[in-house]
Structures are given as structure tokens and as C-alpha cells.
């Protein structure tokens, strides 16, 4: 069973045409309306995700882009957790924790 669809603000002339067409086809105006929608939409091919993504890239190609790394850095803070000493006293490995600011949620990422 389908969901109800209510169409508002339809002109009287369009309703009259729908009723005449429904009478010619031997159906109710509601059945005719369903048939018109079905025919109009069944032949429409839905675009794949790849096609939609390509269209979006094309639409936004001329807009200035911000790298994802910069966006992440804008809302994150690095905290040094531990270091190990390498040759000549410089840290060889720095273990960090990236903490997302409180307004962005509670997420912790670990990387070395």
C-alpha cells in the first residue's frame, strides 16, 4: 500500500483537464493522477553516485577549495603524549593525540 500524496494550489483549469482525461480513460481523477505520475517517473533514470559526484566536482571546480587537513586542524588540537630519544638527543618518535574541540564532539585519534 502506498502513501497519500496531497497536491495543493492546483488551478481549476488543470483539474478540469485531469477529470476530462480520466473520463476518456475510464478511471477516476485520482487513478489518472497516479498513472500520470507513474509514467512521468518510471522512464526517469536515476544517476549513479559516480555521476552525481562528477557533476558536483564540475559545479564546484572554480570555487576556492580548502584541503580536508586544514579543516581538521582548525577544530583539533595536538597533544604530545610521549617521546623517545633518538640520536643526538632529538625525539625519534613523537606519539600524539588529536583531540577534537568540545563543540565538535568527543573524538580522539591516535597517530605516531
On the 0 to 100 scale, the average pLDDT is 76
How much beta, percentage-wise?
Answer: 15-25%
User: Any low-confidence stretches, pLDDT <50, length ≥5?
Assistant: 102-112
| Secondary structure: number of strands | 3
> How are strands sequenced across the largest beta sheet?
1-2-3
* Radius of gyration over all CA atoms, rounded: 30 Å
* Proportion of helical residues: 40-55%
**N- to C-terminal separation?**
55 Å
Shape: rod-shaped
Structural class: alpha+beta
SS summary, helix count: 4
In short:
This protein has helices at 12-24, 29-42, 49-59, 68-75; strands spanning 76-85, 91-100, 108-111.
Describe the protein's architecture and organization.
There is one protein chain. The chain has 112 residues and is of the alpha+beta class. Among the domains are: 31 residues; 44 residues, no CATH class. The chain contains 4 helices and 3 strands. A 3-stranded antiparallel sheet has the order 1-2-3. The longest helix is centred in the N-terminal third of the chain and has 14 residues. It is rod-shaped.
Break the fold down into its secondary structure elements and pairings.
Elements: H1 12-24, H2 29-42, H3 49-59, H4 68-75, E1 76-85, E2 91-100, E3 108-111
Antiparallel strand pairs: 1-2, 2-3
Task: Using brief descriptors, characterize the structure shown.
alpha+beta, rod-shaped, 3 strands, 21% strand, 112 residues, 41% helix
